[in-house]
Amino acid sequence: MQKVCFKCQQVLPIEDFYKHPGMADGHLSKCKECTRADVMQNRREHAGYYRDYDRCRSRQPERVARRRNYCQRQKADEPHKYRARTAAHNALRDGRLRKEPCYFCGSTVDVEMHHPDYGQPLRVYWLCRPCHRKVDNMVKLGVEVAGENA
Hints:
This protein has helices at about 30-45, 45-60, 60-75, 80-95, 130-140, and strands at about 1-5, 10-15, 15-20, 25-30, 110-115, 125-130. By secondary structure, the protein is an alpha+beta fold. The protein has two domains: about 1-45, no CATH class; about 60-140, no CATH class. The strands form three sheets. Strands 1-2 form a two-stranded antiparallel sheet. A two-stranded antiparallel sheet has the order 3-4. A two-stranded antiparallel sheet has the order 5-6.
């Protein structure tokens, strides 16, 4: 079955529309791509509101508890990663490591540690948040990343 998106006017398979029980065919009349674009634009236009909303929501007791449980599970499931991160943070605190600009783009904003090998806890690359997300996604896909095996 196919449907026409009222926004982009493309004829798309029904799977490309979010489900909505209030609609006659059970799906929205706007495709997922257009819906995502509208949501992103709305968040950009009302960034202050959503920043406050997200901050307030993250402090709710059930979210704090869920985050704590997730961290405890991760610590138990992958102790080698926990030890490497702790060692690197301790070295940073003690002055044995220094924050540097992003390895890829040179940004100094939101710079994070990236461990290419958790067996070498003090061998870290400093990456800004966007570059770090890209590298982590590439590693998950099995793509060779510059500096990973250096």
